[in-house]
Write a structure and sequence with these properties.
Length: 339
Amino acid sequence: MQRLSARSLSVLAAIGALILAGCGTESGDPGGEAASASAGRTIRAQKVMQLTQVHDETGMTLLEGPVFGEDGGLIVVDVTAPEGEPKVIRVDVAKKTSRTLHTDGRGAYTSAQFSPYDGRLYLSDFAHGEIVSLAPGGGDPRTFFSGEVDGAPMNPDDIAFGQEGDLYVSDSRGLTGGKAHGRVVRIDREGGGATVLAEDLAAPNGISFDADYRGLWFSELTENRISYLRLDEKGGVTSRHTAIRVDGGLAQTDSIAVDADGNLYQGLHGRAAMAVYDRHGERLATVELPSRAEGLESATNVAITPGGTKAYMTVSGPAGGYLYSFDALAEGVRQSNGG
């Protein structure tokens, strides 16, 4: 067994907490025919390529945060990649090739998004409570935000950008004494200030603006629900309510993407599938893998091609980390590109 450094052990401990918080890969089949019958139509995803294998050091691989860059490349992060292995990967989906965009000895990156303000690639480091950024080509790493927010450290999971470049982050903090401590946090585009928009949440994970940027959808993993925050012109909260209760069985709500028609694509932790809802909460479809796909247990996130309908879903499990594709119900926009 390879001996790990103190830093590696601390990162592994954080990854363990992350798995419990909902970016892991539990086994089991929580769906089945009964669930599919009440979940709208079934969309079958097709394998594009394998990107990663299970890492000996961490005992797993977990792909997240697919996002298309302006050059057409698809960026994917591997949350559990150890030091020296690719942590941020660039994929040419047409050629089915991939290469390392970034690696380091520290980060456990759970999401990726390009900023509309400065064009840089932003990554959330769950393990260290930081948001870091890279040049589009992968160089020039910078720490954008770190430290406490309202006296408490963050566990940033997913990111959504407002139209002016402010960041909206799901802070997936866990339970203490039976009390939920998760939050939705807004960080201004210069990284100088952070504001808590919602608190006492049950491990918030996915986060995305709606199609008109009038409000935020966010999922709470340990409650299997999607809530909606309506925002004013300055990004303040005017109302909040539970919008959708996800009937996931053993599966739990992971990341969220939104297409041009306002449909929600809800990733499932613990099941290699996605649930698709319209903005009124009606279950439109379930995206499933082919029945022959084995050893894949979590479909975390999706990116829909900007201006097109081809969707690329990150799927992981004991068989490795894969990209699967399917036809989305509407075209891709910023809200359906990473997070």
